[in-house]
Amino acid sequence: MRKIAAAVCLASAIVLPGFVQARAVTLNTELKSYRGNDAYLAFYLTDANGQYQSTLWVAGKKAKYYKHLRDWARGSGLNSSEFDGVTGASVGSGQTLKVTVELADALIDAGYEIRVDSAVEDKREHRAEVKVALTSQGAGKSASGSGYIDAFSYDL
User: Fold this and answer.
1) pLDDT tens, position by position, 33-55
2) Which keywords does the record carry (predicted)?
3) Cβ atoms < 10 Å from Cβ of 154
4) Which of 67, 75, 106, 121 has a CA positioned 20 to 30 A from the CA of residue 59?
5) Whole-angstrom distance, CA of residue 115 vs CA of residue 134
6) Class of the 2-155 domain?
7) CA dihedral sign, ordered 73, 46, 97, 102
8) Beta partners for residue 115, in sequence order
9) Is 10's pLDDT higher than 60?
10) Predicted pLDDT of residue 19
11) Closest listed residue to residue 42, CA positions, set 86, 93, 107, 100
12) Which strands make up the sheet holding 52-59, listed edge to edge?
């Protein structure tokens, strides 16, 4: 029953934005310095069970490389409706990406996580390189990635 309630809440937040209180959430990501091409990143929400819920942002414009963002690709089914309008350029070594997305207030402090997958051409792919709980207390706190991401935080 909780899964159904969470799905209805998330669907309502996406489908009925005029009726749901939402707030701007800024995702701040700093990449480590590495050799190679720019990184592709997928930012997405998962529920308390780690199940994919929705795409927040995808850094990297060539959809043919999205399959390398494996957990996000599996969850989103690589359905273009999941990422239309929420994509931008890939991010280079040592660079910073700052993106603002709208999230329903009901998702904050409700067991959701922000996750980030990363991949660089001819290099390793990192599934759920960053996992942070979407909480009021977690806002502004930095988390280290396990691959290309040096630091990730979000601001409410």
Assistant:
1) 999 999 999 999 999 999 999 99
2) Signal
3) 25
4) 106
5) 10
6) mainly beta
7) positive
8) 44, 131
9) no
10) 54
11) 86
12) 87-88, 52-59, 39-46, 113-120, 125-133
